[in-house]
Amino acid sequence: MLPVSNSTSQFPIGHWRLGIGNICTLATFFVLASSALFASPCEGSEPPASRQRLVVAIPDYLQTNDVVSAKRTMTETLLAAGVVPVVLPEMDDAAADRVLSFCDAVLVGGGIAMQDYDRRCAFEERVIALAAKRGLTIVGICHGCQVINRHFGGTLSPVPADGKTVHVSAAYRKRTGKMIEHSATVLPGNSLMSRVFGEGSLKVNSSHTLRCETVAPCFRVTALSEGDGVVEAIEHETLPIYGFQFHPEYYWGENPKFLELVKAALAEGKEIANHEDL
Q1: Could you tell me if residue 276 is inside a domain?
Q2: Is residue 1 part of a domain?
Q3: Residue 65: its pLDDT value, please?
Q4: What is the pLDDT of residue 272?
Q5: Secondary structure of the chain: what % helix, strand, coil (to 5)?
Q6: How many helices (H) and strands (E) does the chain have?
Q7: What gap in Å lies between CA 224 and CA 222, rounded to an integer?
Q8: CATH no. for residue 201?
Q9: Buried-most residue among 10, 62, 74, 101 (CB within 10 A)?
């Protein structure tokens, strides 16, 4: 599982504590949320397709009682990709849908060890359902890939324990400061993965204990681990919905193609976003 930002400076605000690295994204959320809740039709809400910068909602990563946050690595990656990240705290469907009306895409990120795992997944799946109804792009990374697969009818299982490919290693990460790496194969065919990387072998990072075992209907596998055949990437047959089992947000410094992948995936929602007049 992945660590949370190590920022130690925190400010108490009501029942939440905000890390320094999260204030910017939370400020963006409250601006958008306020506009969504109180703007009248005459005030000119801006349809997603007319903006020059995409707005991407990130469901709250932590789901704890006193913190609303997203990982700094993810928000920095989105900013580098030229999009505006918005942290989406847990809320009811009506409020979440109101905020999503100002967004172009939803990104469900990696997991962390926590007691509220089921609660987090339930909220993420509600956001996925709302985003799909609006026709927004949906991107899942690691845990997010698994949540997307399960939401649309796929199944999950533990990664193989045969040792052919190591998918998570705390010792390696402690020693090197990086996730362990292995080779994957980008499968033939017209897919986002093949358009960005081309077909064939690709080195990816890895930090997960679960995998997509049965892929959801209407999804196809676009990349597999070379050692044990674990699914590394999926995409919907017709909709802009993508899942990546690896972590491009931790890898694009070494291989800029991974930032290009994030940009390409999120941009799919810009032209088809179904904005409602507010």
Answers
A1: no
A2: no
A3: 55
A4: 38
A5: 35, 25, 40
A6: 8, 13
A7: 7
A8: 3.40.50.880
A9: 74
Strands 180-186 and 219-225, bridge-based pairing: antiparallel
List of residues 6+ apart from 259 with CB closer than 8 A: 77, 80, 81, 248, 252
Write down the pLDDT at residue 8: 35
Domain housing 70: 10-267
274 three-class SS? coil
Amino acid at 122: A
**Within 10 Å of residue 243's Cβ, how many Cβ atoms?**
31
The answer to whether residue 278 sits within a structural domain is: no
* Per-residue model confidence (pLDDT) at position 31: 44
Q: How many CA atoms lie within 13 A of 41 on its CB side?
A: 4
User: How many structural domains compose the chain?
Assistant: 1
Range 181-198 average pLDDT? 95
> What tokens appear for 129 in the block?
């359902």
Q: Length of the chain, please? A: 278
Give pLDDT tens digits for 142-170: 999 999 999 999 999 998 877 778 777 77
Q: For residue 277, is it within any domain?
A: no
Residue 192's φ and ψ, nearest 5 degrees, are: -60, -40
Predicted confidence at residue 41, as pLDDT, reads: 38
Dig out the tokens for 218 from the structure.
């209407």
Q: Tokens 């609006």 label which residue?
A: 134
CA–CA–CA angle 131, 118, 172 (5° rounding) = 100
Mean pLDDT of 43-54: 59
- Please compute the mean of the pLDDT values over residues 92-117 and round it to a whole number: 88
Q: How far apart are CA 249 and CA 268, in angstroms?
A: 18
